[in-house]
Amino acid sequence: MKRRFHTNLKKFPKRNLSIRILKAGVKAVLVYVAYFIFTLLTQQVYELIGEYSPFIEGFFIAIAIFVFLIEFSSGTIFKYMLEFARSLFVIFYLIIALKSGIIDMNIQNVTLILNLQFFLLMLISINLIEIARTVLSAIDFLHEKAEGELQSSTKARI
Questions:
Q1: Does pTM surpass 0.70?
Q2: How far apart are the first and last CA of the chain?
């Protein structure tokens, strides 16, 4: 059985593309709204997390980009690849931003050391479970796609 690995662009619906872009844009805007609400809620403790504000802003920007790309590529295998990449990004970003779980702050001549390693471990575990779910979903997607191709090819022979 000969398989084709290219996509016929004439069959790709243009209307579907604009709807996918619109849905992806709306979801990315919702992530930005969540960031805006987060900044409003943390304004009073901004002095404590002031040095982490670039990390928080960069995190929300990256997540908004991932949300847009994942929603845009829904229905394809690229969705699962991007979900996998997003989970890896979150893991490494948390390790870097939280300085491996040990944070020290100076508040009015008092040095405060926070050990967030258990919190970091829980977040990493959640993202590892997300990676496993993504891999299993990708396998299921490919199985259903192959099964659909197999059924259509057997119907064509009959």
A1: yes
A2: 16
